[in-house]
Structures are given as structure tokens and as C-alpha cells.
Amino acid sequence: MKKISIKNQFMNKNLQIVLTTLFALACFSLSAQVAASPDYIKQLTSDWQGERFDDGRPHVPDALLQRLKKIQMEEAWGYLRGKGYNNQYDGDWEILHPNKVMTGRALTAQYMPLRKDYKQMVKMKGADENRDTIGGSNSWPIEILRPGDVYVADGYGRVIDGTLIGSNLGTAIYNNSKNGVIFDGGVRDVAGLMTIEGFNGWWRGQDPSYLQEEMLTSINTPIRIGRATVLPGDAVLANSYGVVFIPSHLVADLVLSSEIVALRDIFGFQRLRENTYTPGQIDTKWTDEIKADFADWLKKYPDEKLPMTRKDLNDHLSADRN
Fold first, then answer.
1. In degrees to the nearest 10, what's the CA dihedral of 149, 48, 306, 283?
2. Do 158 and 283 fall into the same domain?
3. What is the pLDDT of residues 194-207, one digit of tens each?
4. Does residue 318 surpass a pLDDT of 90?
5. Residues 78 and 104 occupy one common structural domain
6. C-alpha angle 239-240-244 in degrees, rounded to nearest 5
7. For 275, left (φ over 0), alpha (ψ -120 to 50), or beta?
8. 145 phi, psi to nearest 5 deg
9. Which residue stretches, if any, does this entry annotate as coiled coil (predicted)?
10. Residue 187 domain-assigned?
């Protein structure tokens, strides 16, 4: 009986080793992918309940992204902080067209300093994924951009020899996405990029050098942009005051809440001009009298001027009261 027990223990141990090895190989195969799998992206963004692209990213509606353009940076930042998302904003950018606002859905890419054995593995995996291995791998994220996407790249702040695009790739980006880029890194040929109508970009700097000693490591995985964490499919709001990355499942409520804040401001400014209330009364927690006045003011506000539907407005206000 003792010999059988020892034999069984030996067999169980070998089986455990085999299973552990197979699991490790499976994990290595998954982690060695250049582009994240749709299943992985769905796990990352499991709070999103709407439609998705076939790559797994949340499909935040275009109409919502258009409304997002009118949201003030402070309002978006404040809403996210209130929800416990404290690391979604970054500033200090060079901007191609500072007077323009850009919104879209994040397609993420990560770059690292060149290590030739790792670069070779990435190239082999890219070939397995039917990617173009003749040119540079920095074209791979560009090739899969969809209309409304924003190409968001972690270039670890490198500008000299870290120029992720010039005017040729910039043209391809706009052709595929009809949008622009957010680069924690550099670009070259800004004069050429300026000629691409509709294209915009936020980056750390520009330099005439070309990309070298730097390599692409992943597409559509979580990345860091300055002090912000970005997931694929995040909604991007970029303007002259910085960039904020909004978790997809919070976009609709953030937009609606911020629009109501804007209506409160319009009401407050009007009442101050009319000398109905003092600045102190408006710039603090409102009394029941002011709240009632605001509710009555909203009822008379023209539907065609509302940024949201009357039903959405009433439903949101009703939820706040409850």
C-alpha cells in the first residue's frame, strides 16, 4: 500500500508539473500577442454594456462624442474625481491646433526603448497576426484605426529619436480615423502635419530626427499617458487645457451631468445680471428657494436649446432628488 501511495504521489506531481507548464505556455502565448484579444479588452472594460467593435473596444456613440466636445475640462475632471477616478487627466502639451477640440475613442499603443531580441519577437508575432513586416511597426496601430478613433501612444516622453509620425503617417492616420493623435512622445515634420485638413495632435515636442532605438510593444492594452491611465475604448476629450480619458461606461452620465452644470451656470449668470440674488447666494450651496427658481426656469427653457432631450433632463433631475 505504501509503494502504491508513493507511485500515485509521483504521478500526481508529474501531472501537476505538466499542467503548470501548459498553463505557463498558454499565458506566454497570450501575453506575446502584439494586439490584445477581443476577450481581454472585454474583461478590461466589463462595465461597458453597449455595442463594441469587433476588436472588443467599446463603441461609444458618435452623437455622444459630439456632445462631449462642449464639456469643460474642469467639469469632466470634477465628475471623474467624484466617481473615484483620480488619474485620468494630463496637461503640458504641444498642440497642433490649440483652438480646436478633439473627441474620440482611444486606440492605444505602447512603445519602449529598443531591445533587439524583444523587437524580433514582436516582429514574429506581428507576422503571425498578418501585419506588414516590411515597414516599421509604428504603422501597425495606424492600419487598424476606425472613423472616430484617437491614436493614443505611450512613447515614454521621448522626443529626440522618438518621433512616432511625420506627415506621411499623419495623412494615413487622418485618412483612417478622420481624427488625430495623443502622443506621450514626439513628432517630426510639423509643417507637413499642419497641411492635413482636419488632423490635430497633442504631443510632448517636435524634432527633425526620425524614430530609432524605440520599438512598438503592444496595441490596445492599458497604457500610461503622463499621469493618466488609459484603456482601449476610453473616450478622449482634448482641448487647449489638456487631455482627459473617460472610462467608456461613464461617458453618457458625465456628459449629461456636465450639461446640467452648464445650464445651472446660464441660470446663475442671468439671475446675477438681474440682481435677483447676490454672488454669495449663487456661488454656494443653493437654498430651496433658488432650487425651485431653477426648476421653474428649466421648464420654460426652449427645448431646441437644450443639449439633451427633455426626458433625459427630467430623468436625471428626478434621480438626483431621490
1. -100
2. no
3. 999 999 999 999 99
4. no
5. yes
6. 45
7. left
8. -65, 145
9. none
10. yes
How many C-beta atoms lie closer than 10 Å to residue 2's C-beta? 6
C-alpha cell at 151: 491614436
Helix (H) or strand (E) holding 191: helix 190-194
Check if the beta carbon of residue 124 is closer than 8 Å to that of residue 154: no
Which residues, in sequence order, are CB contacts of 153 under 8 Å at separation 6+?
Answer: 108, 109, 110, 111, 141, 164, 181, 182, 183, 184, 185, 223
In the DSSP assignment, the letter for residue 239 is E
pLDDT digits (tens, 9 = 90+) for 144-177: 999 999 999 999 999 999 999 999 999 999 999 9
Give dist(CA 180, CA 92) in Å, integer. Answer: 18
Which residues, in sequence order, are CB contacts of 254 under 8 Å at separation 6+?
71, 76, 79, 80, 246
Q: Which amino acid is at 183?
A: F
Report helix angle 251-273 to 288-300, nearest 10.
Answer: 100
What is the domain extent for residue 147? 62-246
How many structural domains is the chain composed of?
Answer: 3
SS3 for 240-275 is CCEEEEECHHHHHHHHHHHHHHHHHHHHHHHHHHCC
Q: 293 by DSSP, 3-state: which?
A: helix
Q: Based on the fold, state whether residues 90 and 235 are members of the same structural domain.
A: yes
Residue 38, in any domain of the structure: no
Q: Give tens-digit pLDDT for 89-117.
A: 999 999 999 999 999 999 999 999 999 99
Which DSSP state fits 236? Answer: E
Can you tell me the distance from the alpha carbon of 205 to that of 191, in angstroms, rounded to the nearest whole number? 13
The verdict on residue 40 lying in a domain is: no
Residue 268 and residue 215 share a domain: no
Is residue 49 a part of any domain in this protein? Answer: no
We report the CATH number of the domain holding residue 105 as 3.50.30.40
Q: What is the dihedral of CA 115, 121, 124, 130, to 10 degrees?
A: -90
Which of 206, 231, 246 marks a domain boundary? 246
Q: Give yes or no: residues 145 and 270 share one domain.
A: no
